[in-house]
Amino acid sequence: MMKKIFIISICVLIVVCIGFGVKYLVSVNEYKKEVKNISIKNVDLEKVKDGKYTGSCDVGYIKAVVKVQVKDNKIMSIKLLEHKNERGKKAETILGKVIKAQSIKVDTVTGATNSSKVILRAIESALQNGEKA
Protein backbone atom coordinates (compact mmCIF):
# COMPACT_ATOMS: atom_id res chain seq x y z
CA MET A 1 0.00 0.00 0.00
CA MET A 2 2.81 2.43 0.91
CA LYS A 3 4.56 1.64 -2.36
CA LYS A 4 1.40 2.45 -4.31
CA ILE A 5 0.98 5.80 -2.50
CA PHE A 6 4.65 6.59 -3.13
CA ILE A 7 4.32 5.85 -6.87
CA ILE A 8 1.14 7.95 -7.12
CA SER A 9 2.86 10.81 -5.27
CA ILE A 10 5.84 10.68 -7.64
CA CYS A 11 3.51 10.65 -10.67
CA VAL A 12 1.60 13.67 -9.34
CA LEU A 13 4.88 15.48 -8.68
CA ILE A 14 6.07 14.75 -12.23
CA VAL A 15 2.82 16.04 -13.73
CA VAL A 16 3.00 19.22 -11.63
CA CYS A 17 6.65 19.80 -12.67
CA ILE A 18 5.78 19.28 -16.33
CA GLY A 19 2.90 21.75 -15.96
CA PHE A 20 5.17 24.41 -14.46
CA GLY A 21 7.78 23.75 -17.14
CA VAL A 22 5.25 24.19 -19.94
CA LYS A 23 3.91 27.38 -18.33
CA TYR A 24 7.46 28.75 -18.06
CA LEU A 25 8.28 27.94 -21.69
CA VAL A 26 5.08 29.61 -22.87
CA SER A 27 5.84 32.76 -20.87
CA VAL A 28 9.42 32.91 -22.20
CA ASN A 29 8.08 32.54 -25.74
CA GLU A 30 5.60 35.38 -25.20
CA TYR A 31 8.35 37.57 -23.72
CA LYS A 32 10.65 36.94 -26.69
CA LYS A 33 7.85 37.75 -29.11
CA GLU A 34 7.02 41.01 -27.30
CA VAL A 35 10.66 42.13 -27.31
CA LYS A 36 11.06 41.23 -30.98
CA ASN A 37 7.99 43.33 -31.82
CA ILE A 38 9.28 46.45 -30.04
CA SER A 39 9.72 49.11 -32.67
CA ILE A 40 11.39 52.36 -31.67
CA LYS A 41 10.15 55.38 -33.60
CA ASN A 42 12.04 58.64 -33.32
CA VAL A 43 10.09 61.39 -31.62
CA ASP A 44 10.43 64.90 -33.09
CA LEU A 45 11.76 66.91 -30.14
CA GLU A 46 10.42 70.09 -31.78
CA LYS A 47 6.95 68.78 -30.91
CA VAL A 48 7.70 68.03 -27.26
CA LYS A 49 6.74 70.70 -24.72
CA ASP A 50 9.11 71.65 -21.91
CA GLY A 51 8.53 69.51 -18.85
CA LYS A 52 9.17 66.19 -17.15
CA TYR A 53 7.45 63.14 -18.57
CA THR A 54 7.19 59.59 -17.35
CA GLY A 55 7.07 56.59 -19.66
CA SER A 56 7.26 52.85 -19.23
CA CYS A 57 7.58 49.56 -21.06
CA ASP A 58 6.89 46.14 -19.55
CA VAL A 59 7.43 42.86 -21.39
CA GLY A 60 7.21 40.58 -18.37
CA TYR A 61 10.80 39.63 -17.63
CA ILE A 62 12.05 43.16 -18.31
CA LYS A 63 10.43 46.42 -17.30
CA ALA A 64 11.62 50.02 -17.40
CA VAL A 65 10.11 53.22 -16.04
CA VAL A 66 11.81 56.51 -16.91
CA LYS A 67 11.37 60.21 -16.29
CA VAL A 68 12.59 62.44 -19.12
CA GLN A 69 13.13 66.17 -18.74
CA VAL A 70 12.82 68.26 -21.89
CA LYS A 71 13.70 71.94 -22.16
CA ASP A 72 13.95 74.07 -25.30
CA ASN A 73 13.33 70.98 -27.46
CA LYS A 74 16.30 69.14 -25.93
CA ILE A 75 16.48 66.12 -23.68
CA MET A 76 18.10 67.51 -20.54
CA SER A 77 18.04 64.40 -18.38
CA ILE A 78 16.67 60.89 -18.19
CA LYS A 79 16.18 59.16 -14.85
CA LEU A 80 15.65 55.44 -14.69
CA LEU A 81 13.01 55.08 -11.98
CA GLU A 82 12.72 51.32 -12.32
CA HIS A 83 14.58 48.66 -14.30
CA LYS A 84 13.58 45.05 -13.76
CA ASN A 85 16.05 42.97 -15.73
CA GLU A 86 17.83 39.68 -15.79
CA ARG A 87 21.31 40.32 -17.18
CA GLY A 88 20.60 43.70 -18.75
CA LYS A 89 21.99 46.09 -16.12
CA LYS A 90 24.63 47.36 -18.57
CA ALA A 91 21.81 48.58 -20.85
CA GLU A 92 21.38 51.48 -18.46
CA THR A 93 24.29 53.21 -20.22
CA ILE A 94 21.90 53.84 -23.11
CA LEU A 95 20.49 56.84 -21.22
CA GLY A 96 23.72 58.78 -21.87
CA LYS A 97 23.72 57.75 -25.54
CA VAL A 98 20.20 59.13 -25.98
CA ILE A 99 21.05 62.42 -24.30
CA LYS A 100 24.25 62.80 -26.35
CA ALA A 101 22.49 61.97 -29.65
CA GLN A 102 19.30 63.88 -28.72
CA SER A 103 17.52 60.94 -30.31
CA ILE A 104 16.16 57.55 -29.32
CA LYS A 105 17.46 56.10 -32.56
CA VAL A 106 20.71 54.85 -31.02
CA ASP A 107 22.39 51.46 -31.09
CA THR A 108 21.43 49.01 -28.39
CA VAL A 109 24.01 47.93 -25.83
CA THR A 110 25.74 44.71 -26.86
CA GLY A 111 24.87 41.88 -24.50
CA ALA A 112 21.84 43.77 -23.19
CA THR A 113 19.80 44.21 -26.37
CA ASN A 114 16.43 43.33 -24.84
CA SER A 115 16.85 45.66 -21.87
CA SER A 116 18.09 48.38 -24.23
CA LYS A 117 14.98 48.06 -26.38
CA VAL A 118 12.70 48.17 -23.32
CA ILE A 119 14.44 51.28 -21.95
CA LEU A 120 14.30 53.00 -25.36
CA ARG A 121 10.60 52.17 -25.67
CA ALA A 122 10.01 53.67 -22.20
CA ILE A 123 11.83 56.86 -23.25
CA GLU A 124 9.77 56.99 -26.45
CA SER A 125 6.60 56.65 -24.38
CA ALA A 126 7.68 59.50 -22.08
CA LEU A 127 8.47 61.81 -25.01
CA GLN A 128 5.16 60.98 -26.66
CA ASN A 129 3.44 62.02 -23.42
CA GLY A 130 5.00 65.47 -23.88
CA GLU A 131 4.13 65.99 -27.52
CA LYS A 132 2.18 69.16 -28.24
CA ALA A 133 -1.37 68.53 -29.30
From TrEMBL:
UniProt KW Metal-binding keyword: no
Boundaries of every FMN-binding domain copy: 60-130
Native species: Clostridium neuense
Protein name according to UniProt: FMN-binding protein
SMART domains linked to this entry: FMN_bind
Stored InterPro entries: FMN-bd (IPR007329)
Alphabetical keyword list: Membrane, Transmembrane, Transmembrane helix
Biological classification of the source: Bacteria, Bacillati, Bacillota, Clostridia, Eubacteriales
Transmembrane segments: 6-26
Residue stretches in coiled coil: none
Domain of life: Bacteria
Statement: the UniProt record of this protein carries the keyword GTP-binding: no
